[in-house]
Design goal:
With 292 residues, this protein is α/β, with parallel strands linked by helices. The protein has a single domain (40-288), classed as Alpha/Beta hydrolase fold, catalytic domain (Rossmann fold, 3-Layer(aba) Sandwich). It has eight helices and twelve strands. Helix 5 links the parallel strand 9 and strand 10. Helix 6 (215-223) packs parallel to helix 7 (242-254).
């Protein structure tokens, strides 16, 4: 083989390698672009550097990610804002991390801010898979578990909320602090609102799984008179929990909770999913915080 042929072959080899590397690079760029497109969270949604742990029923610390939504003007203002704590954080802001679709909490609150100037901080706490049911109920179910709700709420009240209040401009009093969740998250929001009425003044009880334990009835009777907060009860007519929904909400008033502090809504056609909950979120937050 002549020297010139060797040079030509070497050049061809280097060209092929260069093309392959270029393809790999282009592929990575496209992959990153796709990932960015798939993420639907707004620029004013971030993830806290610190994760927060709940001791499970076996005594093991279970950590989870926490999301933070701040108003669009947060960095430019000196205002303090109400704070809403929400469960199932991975389903609130981003379709990329959601189970079967996101609520769109960030887009909804951004829209409210644009229309009214009313801003919120939202703290979205991820559920941790198999621990979700345990953490979202203080009572046990013989088939589904449960029973770790008090520890979960303790983490929010004694660790997460103090950290948020220390590091962000928040309105700390109960009339500015909410807790909102759906399904089992609706159950723990209801329970938490009655257990910590001096912490949470605004409660979003969305599609609550009151069927999970009959203990919710005796608990309601015992706690109703001591609670001084606002509660928005929401259920879709096709969710199959109407009996328990009416039973608990009616019992709450009968046991001494102020009737004017409850708003109850049964939505025809409403189903048990994120699309339904997201479609109702603006009304929930508007009523709880009396946004005009």
């Amino acid at each position: 083989m002549t020297f010139i042929k060797k040079i030509i072959l070497l050049f061809c080899f280097l060209s092929i390698v260069s093309c392959d590397k270029s393809k790999i690079k282009d592929s990575k760029i496209k992959e990153q672009s796709i990932q960015k497109i798939n993420s639907s969270r707004s620029p004013n949604v971030s993830i806290l550097k610190d994760s927060f742990a709940v001791e499970n029923l076996q005594g093991k610390l279970i950590y989870r990610k926490v999301w933070l939504y701040t108003p669009p003007n947060y960095k430019k203002s000196t205002e303090s804002y109400p704070v809403v704590y929400m469960h199932d954080g991975q389903n609130l802001f981003d379709k990329e991390t959601s189970f079967v679709g996101e609520w769109g909490v960030d887009e909804i609150l951004n829209s409210i801010f644009e229309k009214t100037g009313k801003g919120f901080i939202v703290v979205g706490i991820d559920n941790v898979g198999s621990e979700r049911t345990n953490e979202y109920s203080p009572w046990t179910h013989k088939k589904y578990g449960g029973g770790n709700g008090d520890r979960y709420l303790k983490m929010i009240v004694e660790e997460l909320k103090p950290m948020i209040d220390k590091n962000y401009r928040t309105k700390t009093k109960k009339e500015h602090t909410g807790i909102i969740g759906s399904s089992m998250g609706g159950l723990i929001s209801y329970y938490g609102g009655l257990k910590h009425p001096t912490v949470f003044g605004k409660i979003g009880v969305i599609s609550p799984s009151f069927w999970f334990s009959e203990n919710v009835l005796s608990y309601t009777k015992n706690q109703a008179k001591e609670a001084d907060n606002k509660m928005f009860f929401l259920l879709g007519a096709e969710e199959g929990m109407t009996k328990e929904f009416n039973e608990v909400s009616n019992l709450l008033v009968e046991s001494g909770f102020k009737k004017e502090s409850i708003y109850k809504k049964l939505v025809p056609g409403g189903k048990h999913n994120e699309a339904f909950w997201g479609s109702q979120f603006e009304e929930v937050i508007t009523w709880l915080y009396n946004i005009q």
